[in-house]
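Board work, copied verbatim: DUF3857 domain-containing protein
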Amino acid sequence: MKLKLFALLCAAALWSQPALAADDGIDTSVTTLKNQQTFVVQRDGSYVQDFEELVQINEQRAVAHQSQRQFHFNRTLEDVEIIEAYTEKPDGRRIPVLPEQIKLQNEPAYSGAAMFQDMQVKSVIYADVAVGDKLYSKTHKIRRSAYFPGQFSDITYPLFRRTGQLTLIYDMPAGMLLKADDPGFKASTPQQHDGRTVYRWDYVQAPTPRIEVGAIAYSDYGRHLIVSTFNSYGEIGLAYDRTAALAAAVTPRITARAREVVKGLNDPRAQAMAIDNWVRKNVRYVAVYIGNGGLEPHSAESILDNRYGDCKDHVALMEAMLHAVGIDSTPALINLGWSFRLPPVAQLGQFNHVITYIPALDLYLDSTADSIAAGYLPGDDLDKPVILTRSGQMGHTPVTQLIKIKNHYTVKIAADGSATFNFTRDQLGAWEEAVRNEHRNWGKVDQERFVEVLLKSATIKGRGEVVLGDLSEAASGKGYRFTLKGSGDNWVYLPGPVGVPAYSSLYVGLAQQVLGLTNETTRTQPYLCPENDYEEDASYEFPANATLLAVPPDVHLASPYFQYSAEFRQVDGKLLIKRALKSGKAGTRVCTPEDYLAMQGDIRKMVRDMRSQFILQVPEAADMAAGAN
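↓ predict structure ↓
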């Protein structure tokens, strides 16, 4: 699969979503019989590409997806011609794709920004497709100018399917050295001809394990072919900055706006936060690619006027406004997704996003993240190598940041098994604003039914209400607290002895985090380390005639991955439960299969605790009467 990430800068990372399947990750519904791509590259970085593909449909579920093939291109810089396309039936008949079955459409990413309509899609619609058919296409693309003059790079990932042939050929000018990172591919000896060098790689079919739950991006550990003429990542950053710096020019209008935003603030960090907050809340994110717009931001002043733009545009406006108040910053090219390592061959493809870095404050800001408080980063921006484009130096985003949850839970159980409850949740740090934003968007019906649906998921018939916290913008960064309260008719089944789950939270809490650690029995791929910081306390109050027959044992764990505690105390007719979980791996967000194996003893102990019960007994009416006699 060819990933043209140059034109997807600021888009979500690919290969980051886990697939739930059998241990063999191969998709048997379709087979690639031939995929051959030939690039003829010129010294200025422009090229032509001939792409030939033949696939076979093996199962009905592949028909709908495969019967339409899309080719994305930038009409300012590229031309794409469909040379030939047809459906080949099992008896050898060919049904050609007619001109009217080739549709030209604008890229759907432009929703809400109709003035930016440069990326387009040619869709090839095959006729009469059925199981057993073969679908063929041959295209010719002309790339008239390079993203970076004099440079070329390309990335290929094999699809998770049976593949007969996957061949990449690069015909380069002599002296334009092509460097490669090629696990899973076989390189041929480069051939010389007429002052040019021809490189060839062929994919080697091998077992393809499914992507495990929570695995990091496939690009970090899987098979791929990366080719590039760049000498270093710093070279990429400086090339990007040659055009990006022009877009961040400070104008009188930008200066006036920046000074208005920071009015009354003298501390540079507070000023930077205020500008970040203003841009996040006032400049809508829209992917806008015009000309070389996949890499070149629009002018900061035009973004200030239009109040929308993509990540590069956000960063250009941030840089201009910060500079207007005396704060220097630089764009930082980053991977937005679950890729944490850079290949040894420098290329831009893995950098699909750009954020702001302020060297004097050692502070990274992502102004496209409108659901977090200023000063925090989205989770998929953390622990990432970045290119600081102003200097061409490498940087690294923080590994961790404050994400703390405190749950407070009280339950009062009556003699008939009904109960009343009160649950309060405190969100501190990066997630605070996300929850606040969610609650801002809640309708009245959402609030009225939330508790009822929550209880129903636990097979409890009940009712309740949500008490929202402070939703004002002034509260941002100060934590967010909300409350759930109500009652349940069948909380426990009394009288008699009964086992009651020893929950310390009503709503999503550390139980879900612990149980989520068991999604895979074993691991063979690096994965995202579980990172949590939870504190929970619960109080269960019982009827006057109840007896607490047994409570779970305390648990205390400390390891390189988990600090976990669970304590149970009987005080004044109540059972008090306190739990805490702090997890992570020092210095990195990536865990290895060896880490997972080392965690298993702790995981079993925590899961056992989360499934524990206390035993409560309320006498039957007959027993009470007999006791009275």
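Residues 1-22, 110-116 have pLDDT under 50 and may be disordered.
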